[in-house]
Amino acid sequence: MLLRKFFSTSPFAARVAPFVVFVLLTALQDSWGKGMTLRPDLLQAQLTLEQQGIQLKFDRNQFYPSLDLIGSYGYNGAGTVYNDVFSQYANQSSPFWSYGAQMNIPLSNVSARNTLKSDKVTEKQDLLKLKELEQNILVEIDNAVKEAQSDFESVDATRQARIYAEAALDAEQKTYAVGKATTFEVLQYQNNLTTARGQEIRALANYEEALSNLAQQEGSTLQRRSLDLEVK
Fold first, then answer.
1. Does residue 79 contact residue 88 with C-beta atoms inside 8 Å?
2. How far is residue 109's CA from residue 114's CA, in Å, rounded to a whole number?
3. Do 119 and 53 touch, CB atoms closer than 8 A?
4. pTM surpassing 0.85?
5. Pairing label, strands 95-104, 66-75
6. Angle at Cα 18 formed by Cα 13 and Cα 23, nearest 5°?
7. How far apart are CA 64 and CA 54, in angstroms?
């Protein structure tokens, strides 16, 4: 969006090339920042790595002794008929309870060690996948920004061509009005103007598509449309 705002309000862009380069660099860095914070696939990869870290902490805890306190409480019912049983249960006249402690001391714990080794490997793989995804996102955003820049330049070029075609048609119509041009020549200029307008519209559509693609690569499509999605 920074590209669009600057170029659309600056008719002298060719005279301020150094500033344009700075604006483009700023736009690229801004897009990178959005991609690193908004891309859903990157957020999912970060969450997966965080979950794997929690799993590793759990695996390490399996090497330590554990002490569990256990207990139970309830009611009994006894009798020769069902009515007696349910009556005692309903009246809570025969309670029972128990309590105690259970200690587990891992010795060789081969299974837990193998699980820990396996989860360490998985964590390293997840970290490598995350770094690779970050690099891919930076490249994808860079390409999307360049595409948007190129399409905007096409918009500017086709706009200038359309303005020229309008001026040429106006001059030709004035020439025709004084009898120095033919109807065929005027129609040719009208056809040139129609073609120039079509090319400008196509260039504008390409630019809008490039901006949409850039928003997709940034993960900012909802933000660009001023939409707020809350997951409850």
1. yes
2. 9
3. no
4. no
5. antiparallel
6. 75
7. 16
Helix axes 17-38, 183-218, angle to 10 degrees: 40
**Amino acid letter, 230:** E
Contact present, 152 and 7 (Cβ < 8 Å): yes
Helix (H, G, I), strand (E, B) or coil at 192: helix
d(CA 42, CA 169): 53
Please, what is the end-to-end C-alpha distance for the chain in angstroms? 31
Residue pLDDT tens, the chain, 232 long: 444 443 443 343 343 334 334 445 557 888 898 999 989 999 999 999 999 999 999 888 888 888 889 998 887 766 666 666 677 667 777 788 888 998 888 777 788 888 889 999 999 999 999 999 999 999 999 999 999 889 988 999 999 999 999 999 999 999 999 989 899 999 999 999 999 999 999 999 999 999 899 999 998 888 777 777 665 5
Query: Distance between CA 113 and CA 63 in Å, rounded?
Result: 8
Burial class (CB in 10 A: 0-12, 13-18, 19+), 17: exposed
